[in-house]
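Field reference: "sequence" (input) and "structure" (output). Example, Protein prenyltransferase alpha subunit repeat-containing protein 1:
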Amino acid sequence: MEEDKFALVEKIIKDVHNVLSKIAELYAFDVVPMDNNFQNKSPVLHMENCLGLESWCVKHVYMYCYTELMDKYCMKPNRKSRKLAFGCERLIKLLNVTLLLKPENNSLWNKRRELVLQALLDKTVELHFSRLVLSRKPKCNEAYAYRRWVLDSILQDDTLPVHNIESLVNDEIVICNLASDKCPNNYHSWNHRTWLLNRLTRVKSNFDIDSLFIKEYHFSEKWTSKHVSDFSCFHYYQFCLKNIYSLSDESWKILQSSLNINLRKVLVKLLATNFPKDLTIQASEENLLSYSEENLMKLLLAYANKNCKCVVDYVQLCRKVEILFHSLVLNDELIRFYKHHETLWYHRRFILHEMLMVMYDHFGLVRCKGALVKKSCKVCYFEELRQKQPKIVRYDSNHIYSSVFFNVILTHEKKIIDERRTDGDNFADRHEKYLKFVEALNSVI
C-alpha cells in the first residue's frame, strides 16, 4: 500500500510539473474540495488555463514533498546524513508542489533564490510561478517578498527597454488588483504596490513615472470611494497624494484635465464659504479665481519666515493646497454618505495634518514637545547647523492662528463636527479631541 501511495504522489508531482512547464498561459491555482477519489483518475486538474488539485490528496503530497526537501536539500550543518548527488530538476519539481500548497515557508523561497542566482531558474518564469501562488493565497507575504526580489534584480539592468518595464508594471498592477479584490484590507498587496512605485523612481531609463503616479492616484481615489473601510488602500491613496505634490508643469495639466473638475474652483468655493467674519476680506469667488498663485497664497499665508532667504515656490505651494482641499471636499461627501466609518475619519486626520504642515513649513516652524518652535533652514544655515546644536526658540503662534488659511480650516472643521455630532456620529467627538490634544489646537477650538 505504501508503495502504491508513493507511486501516486510521484505521478502527481510529474503531472503538476508537466502542466507548469508546458502551459505558459496559466493564471490561477487552487485546491478543489473532493473528499475521495471516486473516479480513479489523476487528481491534477487543468481547465481553461487554471491548475487545480483535489483536496483528498493534498496532505499526502505535501508531507511527501516537504519531507524529501528537508532531508535531502535543506539539511542543517550539524545533521549527519550521507551525501548524495541530486539533480536540480528534482528539487524544482518538489519546490513547485510544496510552495503551491503551502507558500508561507520562507526557507523554500530561499532555495528558489539560490537556483535563480545559479541561473537554474528563469526570472520571468519565477514571476509567473509566484503569480500562481498569489492566485490562491493573495495575502502571502513571502510570495510578495520573492516577487520584489526578482523584480529588483530585473530592474537593476539599466539597458532594460521602456516597453519591458511597462509590461512588468502592468502585470504587477493586475496582480495587486486581483489580490485586493479577493481579500479586503489586503495590506500585503497595497504594500507591494507602494514598493513598486518607489522602486520605479530609481529606474534610470526614460520611464514616465509621473503618468503612473497620476494613474494610480485616480485608481486609489475611486477605490477608496467604493471601499470606505479598506484602511490599507487609504494608506496607499495617501502615498499617491504625497507624490502628486511634486508633479511637473506638464504632468499637472494632465492631472487637472483627467480629474474633470477645476481644482482652483473647489479651493475658492471652500474659501469663500469659510472666510473668518472678523477679517475685512471682501473677495468673492470670481475675484479669487482671478488671483495668481502667489497672490492667493499670500492672502492665505500672509506672514512668511523673514529669517530664511529661500525663494518660495508659490505655484508648487498652491498646487499642494488645491489637491489637499480637493481631498478634504471628497472626504466631506463620503463622511456624510457613509456614516460611522472610522477609516474615513482617520483619513481626514491625515489631510488636516498635511494642511497644518503646509503652514508650519511656510512659517519655518516645527512642533517640539507640544510647542511650536522656530526651525533653522537647512539650506541657509547649513554651516551653523553643522557646527553646533541650534537653540530652540518658542514661537508666538498668533501668526498662524490669525492667518486666513488656518481660520478657514478651523471654521470648516467646526461645521463638520457640529453637523456629524447632530447626526449621531460618535467619531465627530473623537475627531475634535484629536485636533485638540494631538494637533495641539485646544487653545483655539
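Residues 265-438 form one domain.
The longest strand covers residues 28-32.
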